[in-house]
């Protein structure tokens, strides 16, 4: 009996000892901790192979699709499509895993393969796969059916899918840009409303040039544009449905209306109404046609732009003595100045992402385009020059398009784009001079 | 009494078990991060290649400095030096015959047999500047030659330099911790490979923590682990893209150039990719 209890006591003591010992054994030796805070902002090298086609026509379309995707990704400044001549593997079947080693050799971090095929019913079937070369896995893959003449749009949609998967943010390639096409001599410019794909393809005119048009703005929710047109020497805000061509005056105000912009849901328009040297901001509900006055000062309040949540509006005003940027609640209450730098600030535009407000700044006779946070902090200038104006955000809030005017008799405005980081500034091709660009939302 | 003992024992076991399970996952206090930073002491001679010239030169310098222009010719004189070591033994006996140049040998003092070496020098020098023999001799071979003439300099200077610098380096090496400059070298490798998720909103919050296991040749021993997997499951597209960019950077960068002697300290790395500082947010 005594022996049993002593054995029990011993075993208990042993267990206790083991537990105590074990509890003091910490996790394995701590690994070396290193903070990596510096990287590069070089574009990511990736390979886009020609889309495989079954017939000669299919493969021509396949090569064109690959070209459009490459061009889209390259223009974003975040990717560097590798030259096809450097490809070692010739992808023959999109359903077979590529030889990743061959792609690592040429330093491709991602690989795009795909195929296009004309179906018996006349539709074009396009599918693609995006591979991560280092983890040797497919990260995304989609297929589309469309009419053959729609191949360019499908290419943009694929480029958007790749961009979204690799950067985490929404794409902006399947979008259009509306702008004012200018032609004729400098003192007698004909200004027409024009629209094109974001890469400059498929340009077409929306108005005939008989009336002066200015400041077109895209609806964030549908294919509608609001703009300013001089009809009978009186500037009025108009609304144009791109698909039907239907045009109408927004509201019937006694004074002149200008600087219109849609609310994020596309149901309202905020604009300026000028009466006797003083302009204030009004909002009009497009469905009920009810107007509401948002500012009421003796100063010039103009260029309203909604926050993406629709709860606030940023605008420019000279109520403090000089032209500056303000933010107020959507009902006009609690206006607060946010720009405090040197120079004058104009045309604030809230980013669709909500994190920044873009503006045009006039300082020492130069026009700069910059961004700041909605509280006015973190001001950064993205581009500057003799005359830069009219920034417009891409739907993902990553890129700004603006117009830049050159001096001289032969000079004129042309469209440019710049990344929100200030890198990657490049021209946007238009057949004529172009100004006042406005970016559409992603097409649906 | 017995029941009390059992209850007490059980409670202790429970507490110990709980401690064993819970404690390792408790985040350490931030203050613990303070570590001893091993520092490499590097003497400047390694980089400048300048020979240390001992004191005596001080006096002659002001007087002699203008003259050296005529004497670039004699400079080649040190050239015979290289063969000198071979001749040293034979040359040694005449040493007493030329005792005057004694001050000059000092530059070479660190060497074990300085005197013999010096003798060849004085001889040729003597012939030309007979009048100011002492001052010139004192200057030429040591300071000027030391400063301008690379060949002999290398031979003479390198040895002492090495013996001086090796000591601290070896001391650092005996410590198995990576030094600051070795960690910096690793960071430079990562910088080349890591494409920062630029332009994402609030990029400062896109911090990715990875655990990397390395072989002694710097290649990956095991697949890299994502430490903050939990936040990744939230479905944040930006964070997913940022995590993938960090993983790609590691895949692309390996094998890393690491000091094999300190393998124990870097076989496991906790890497924290933080784009905030770079993107200013």
Description of the molecule:
The complex is a heterodimer of chains A (444) and B (281). Chain A is mainly β and 444 residues long. Chain A has 2 domains: 12-167, 3-Layer(aba) Sandwich (Rossmann fold), CATH 3.40.50.10070; 176-439, 6 Propeller (Neuraminidase). In chain A, 15% of the residues lie in helices and 43% in strands. Chain A is built from 4 helices and 31 strands. Chain A has helices at 2-24, 56-75, 100-105, 151-167, and strands spanning 32-36, 44-48, 52-53, 79-81, 110-118, 124-132, 137-146, 176-183, 190-197, 204-205, 213-218, 224-231, 234-241, 247-249, 256-262, 268-275, 278-285, 291-293, 301-306, 312-317, 324-329, 336-337, 344-350, 357-363, 366-372, 380-385, 388-393, 399-405, 413-419, 426-428, 433-439. In chain A, the strands form 7 sheets. In chain A, strands 2, 3, 4, 5, 6 and 7 form a 6-stranded mixed β-sheet that branches. Chain A is globular and about 100 Å long. Chain A starts with a helix and ends in a 5-residue tail after the last strand. Chain B is mainly alpha-helical and 281 residues long. Helix content of chain B is 47%, strand content 5%. Chain B contains 13 helices and 3 strands, in the order H-H-H-H-H-H-H-H-H-E-E-H-H-H-E-H. Chain B has helices at residues 2-22, 45-48, 60-64, 84-91, 114-118, 122-127, 133-148, 150-174, 180-193, 229-232, 237-253, 263-266, 276-279, and strands spanning 208-213, 225-226, 268-273. Chain B has a 3-stranded antiparallel β-sheet with strand order 2-1-3. In chain B, helix 9 crosses helix 11 (237-253). The longest helix of chain B has 25 residues, at 150-174. Chain B starts with a helix and ends with a helix. Mean pLDDT of chain B is 64; it is low at 55-138 and 149-174. Classes of the chains: A mainly beta (444), B mainly alpha (281). Chains A and B meet through helix 1, strand 1 and helix 4 of A and helix 1, helix 9, helix 11, strand 3 and helix 13 of B. Strand 1 of chain A pairs parallel with strand 3 (268-273) of chain B.
